[in-house]
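Morning F.,

Quick status update on the modeling queue. The single chain you submitted on Monday has been processed. Sequence for confirmation:
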Amino acid sequence: MRHELKIDDRTLSYLDFGGPGRPLLALHGGMSEGFAFAGLAEALGDAWRVIAPDQRGHGDSDRAADYTRAGYVSDAVALLDHLGLDAPVALLGYSLGGLNAVHLAAAHPHRISALIDVDAAVEINPAGNEWMAFLQGMRYTAPTREELLAAAGPVGSQIVAQALRPLPDGGWRLPFHPQDMLDSVEACRGDHWAAWLGSECPALLIHGTRSASLPQEQADAMVSRRPGTTYAPLDGDHFVPFTDPEGFHGAIGKFLATL
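Structure tokens below.
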């Protein structure tokens, strides 16, 4: 069920899939939304209550003034407070959400009982030109759905085709503003080893072994350098949660069953 809370003058929208199970906070990747975890919530069943926000600037959540780690993390903490989840919760994040989850676990270790990082690297240097061109070529709004998809290009349209939002006065918008995503990409740049090593809870690294975002050498180092980290390789690229949902859900379920 979809809910929302106010953070200052912004709306943060989130999905609470409900159920009697232990809470699992799930943070989606860039250009995505909380609904991306609907299949995971179904796969986990009653054992886990999946709570998946549309992170700032994504989905039904309002745009924000910045897209720094501190901003993303503060939204997640506000959501935990809003839900009254004072006891530690399990935390999952994919890609952009994975980096946010790593920083959340490091900054608030008493609130996190387990960490699942899905193909999020800790040494990030975006390729820049190709990524920039992809986002800069997208339109935020258009009079018709067809025009918006055409402007997104073949790759962009695959990402947003099922997630476009109708505007109140007619027309359509993307589920994110391209400039916000560019700002998010830039804010991810840098060395995040301190955050990855800054929590001590059990952790799982799910890795697409052909991922261009997380090289094998870095994935191996992340596992070896952080005590209590389990490694789950999946044969796929960075988008393995969507190309191999069965393997993705299975790896998460197996790890959560050990807690």
